[in-house]
């Protein structure tokens, strides 16, 4: 697990780096070396909570919560593959700022994280924050009745805009609320649990016209589905820019 952490820590300063951690988890490293994490799933807590093989972790663990010190951590909603009960409390040890949707309050209490209350901010769509190099805007998403307060995340860093749509169905009526231009669009393709499928993420990419679209939310659990090959075919046919990230891959947004 240390190798991936070393890869992140040694990524050259001067450029912005995006790392895929699997499922919907991403790490952004600023040009000055600051770190922001979104929806990291580093444990097996989902299988433990759900109790069946459909939620068995299928991708390897690349990080331990103790491997990196984050300036900010975002949990877009309280589903356990986005708010990892075994991970989030350990990420708070070095004055890390945690931003989580308001419906994460029960999990904060369950994990006895009230000790860190000065570091925790509950967010709703329309809220924003500044942490070091990162400007973070929390935008609407629609994850259905199971997580009605879920948010998407728009991160502006080093003059780049990275939009992680969060777990959401397709809402083209809200596409105008996302500022352009976008350098990166990240969105789910699994088509289950109220999420976009492969075709729907391509439609969002058509509407937002990002520099690159990166699919997520596939490969971790058998029950979640998601066909990244189908997404590749759809995006290629539409001649839309796509980048499929291997778990542990580094994508560099170079400064102009």
Automatic annotation (TrEMBL):
Top-level taxon in the UniProt lineage: Bacteria
The record's section on InterPro entries has: Metallo-B-lactamas, RibonucZ/Hydroxyglut_hydro, UPF0173_UPF0282_UlaG_hydrolase
Boundaries of every Metallo-beta-lactamase domain copy: 22-217
SMART domains the UniProt entry points to: Lactamase_B
PANTHER family with a match to the protein in the record: UPF0173 METAL-DEPENDENT HYDROLASE MJ1163-RELATED (PTHR43546)
Q: What is this protein called?
A: Metallo-beta-lactamase domain-containing protein
Which organism does this sequence originate in?
A: Sporofaciens musculi
List the taxonomic lineage: Bacteria, Bacillati, Bacillota, Clostridia, Lachnospirales
């Amino acid at each position: 697990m240390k190798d991936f952490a070393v890869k992140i820590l040694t990524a050259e300063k001067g450029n912005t780096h995006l790392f895929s951690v699997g499922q919907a988890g991403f790490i952004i490293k600023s040009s000055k070396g600051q770190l922001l994490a979104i929806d990291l799933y580093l444990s097996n807590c989902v299988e433990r909570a759900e109790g069946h093989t459909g939620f068995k972790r299928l991708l390897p663990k690349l990080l331990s919560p103790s491997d990196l010190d984050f300036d900010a951590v975002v949990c877009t909603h309280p589903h356990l593959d986005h708010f990892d009960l075994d991970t989030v409390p350990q990420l708070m040890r070095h004055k890390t700022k945690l931003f989580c949707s308001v419906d994460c309050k029960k999990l904060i209490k369950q994990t006895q994280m009230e000790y860190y209350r000065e570091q925790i901010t509950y967010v709703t769509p329309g809220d924003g924050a500044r942490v070091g190099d990162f400007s973070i805007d929390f935008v609407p998403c629609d994850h259905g009745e199971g997580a009605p307060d879920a948010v998407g995340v728009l991160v502006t860093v080093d003059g780049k805009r990275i939009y992680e749509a969060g777990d959401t169905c397709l809402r083209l009526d809200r596409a105008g609320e996302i500022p352009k231009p976008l350098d990166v669009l990240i969105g789910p393709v699994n088509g289950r649990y109220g999420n976009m499928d492969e075709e729907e993420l391509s439609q969002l990419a058509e509407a937002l016209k990002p520099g690159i679209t990166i699919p997520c939310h596939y490969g971790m659990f058998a029950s979640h589905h998601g066909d990244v090959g189908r997404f590749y075919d759809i995006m290629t046919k539409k001649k839309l820019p796509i980048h499929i990230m291997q778990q542990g891959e580094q994508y560099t947004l170079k400064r102009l």
